[in-house]
Structures are given as structure tokens and as C-alpha cells.
């Protein structure tokens, strides 16, 4: 005779464990996600559906992608979110020298990376040169890469806005960035 054992996993506990693992892996305060889990788990489920968009990259060159992403997070003015993006860039293999050049405006950027940074800034500020910069980059990178840059730029705005709107923007503060 065999005995079968079944494990039941509480979905809330599983989600909390995932959030805590993410916090531990990246040194990131995800209190706003824990609060969403507690008060509006359905909202967290929808939010989690968005998260893959924030990291989608198949066609954009690694450095170009992170040039857009880090520039966008810097403009979003969320220190902890920017630090998270820095850690993800490092994890992906972006050099610390390039990260410093993008985050602190210290160091040289290639022409392509400078155009990517300028495009990101123009896009977020709705500047008139946005379209000409987009056209130049699209010619060089192709439409698939441009779609990925668009997602990276847009996603960087979502996290600080969600934190602000849910009352957790105090965690968006100045931090001493570790690069």
C-alpha cells in the first residue's frame, strides 16, 4: 500500500515568497508589491503580467537597450528603481564604465549610445527632435529593436508611478548608486 501526499500551496504565500526572493536577489524594497498582494491580489496579478514587458529584449543590442533603460530610469527620478536597473545591467554583462557614463554623465559614449540616450530623453520630454532621432536609430537598429526600446523607455515610468499612486513613493528616494 502506498501513501500519497499532496501539498497545497497557498497562492498568496507563493506570491509573497517570490516577492521576497526578488527583494533578496536585487536588494530592492518591494513593499508596494507586498501591499498590493495584501489588499488587491488581483491588481498584483495584472501588474505581474506587465513586468515581462519591462525586461523584454531580443533584437536590441545589449548596450543600446540598457542605454535607453538606464536613461529612462534616471529621468523617472526613482533612486531604488534606477539602482535595480543598474544591477540588472551588471547582471546582463554591461560594463560598469558604460553604466557610470549613462547614470552619472561621466565617460564617453559611442555615437550610437549617445544617440540612444538623446532619443530616450527627447521621447520622454516630447521634444521636437524625437522623430528625427527615432528615424536615425530605426534606420540603424531596425523596427524590432525600436519596439523593444519603446517598451524599456515606457516601463521605466510605470514603477515610480505605481509606487506614487499607492503611497509608497517614499521608497523612491535618493540613493548612493552602487556601480
UniProtKB/TrEMBL annotation:
What's the superkingdom here? Answer: Bacteria
Matching InterPro entries: AhpD-like
Protein name, please?
Answer: Uncharacterized protein
Amino acid at each position: 500500500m502506498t501513501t500519497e501526499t499532496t501539498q497545497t500551496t497557498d497562492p498568496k504565500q507563493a506570491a509573497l515568497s517570490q516577492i521576497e526572493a526578488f527583494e533578496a536577489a536585487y536588494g530592492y524594497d518591494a513593499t508596494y508589491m507586498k501591499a498590493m498582494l495584501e489588499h488587491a491580489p488581483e491588481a498584483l496579478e495584472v501588474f505581474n503580467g506587465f513586468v515581462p514587458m519591462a525586461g523584454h529584449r531580443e533584437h536590441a543590442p545589449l548596450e543600446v537597450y540598457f542605454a535607453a533603460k538606464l536613461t529612462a530610469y534616471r529621468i523617472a527620478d526613482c533612486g531604488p528603481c534606477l539602482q535595480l536597473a543598474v544591477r540588472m545591467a551588471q547582471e546582463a554583462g554591461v560594463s560598469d564604465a558604460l553604466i557610470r557614463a549613462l547614470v552619472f554623465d561621466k565617460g564617453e559614449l559611442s555615437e550610437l549610445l549617445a544617440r540612444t540616450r538623446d532619443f530616450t530623453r527627447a521621447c520622454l520630454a516630447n521634444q521636437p527632435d524625437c522623430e528625427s532621432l527615432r528615424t536615425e536609430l530605426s534606420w540603424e537598429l531596425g523596427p524590432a529593436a525600436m519596439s523593444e526600446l519603446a517598451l524599456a523607455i515606457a516601463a521605466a515610468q510605470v514603477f515610480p508611478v505605481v509606487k506614487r499612486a499607492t503611497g509608497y513613493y517614499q521608497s523612491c528616494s535618493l540613493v548612493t548608486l552602487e556601480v
